[in-house]
Design a protein that fits this description.
The protein has 79 residues and is mostly beta strands. The chain contains one helix and five strands. It has one helix at residues 6-15, and strands at residues 26-28, 31-34, 43-46, 53-61, 64-69. It is elongated, with a radius of gyration of 17 Å. The termini are far apart.
């Protein structure tokens, strides 16, 4: 056998909350965009002054991933 501790692996997986990468938000032609290394369909949380805003990657232009929020996001600012 490989000698794997499946109980410990299970505990570690339960504590894992997903990949966390940080970056800056930009506006390109009135759309949210970022230069983070993302894939089509990836979901991102925009952190700001209030609750996080969930977004999804919908396309790419000039090395930038374009994001669309699932809810209204008037308070989102570039930076």
């Amino acid at each position: 056998m490989l000698g794997l501790n499946l109980d410990r692996i299970g505990l570690e997986l339960n504590r894992f909350s997903g990949l966390q990468v940080t970056g800056r938000l930009k506006f390109v032609e009135d759309r949210l965009a970022t230069s983070l290394p993302l894939s089509l369909g990836d979901q991102c949380e925009l952190l700001g002054h209030r609750e996080p805003i969930l977004t999804e990657v919908i396309g790419f232009t000039h090395g930038l991933a374009h994001l669309v929020p699932y809810e209204r996001a008037e308070e989102v600012q570039a930076g």
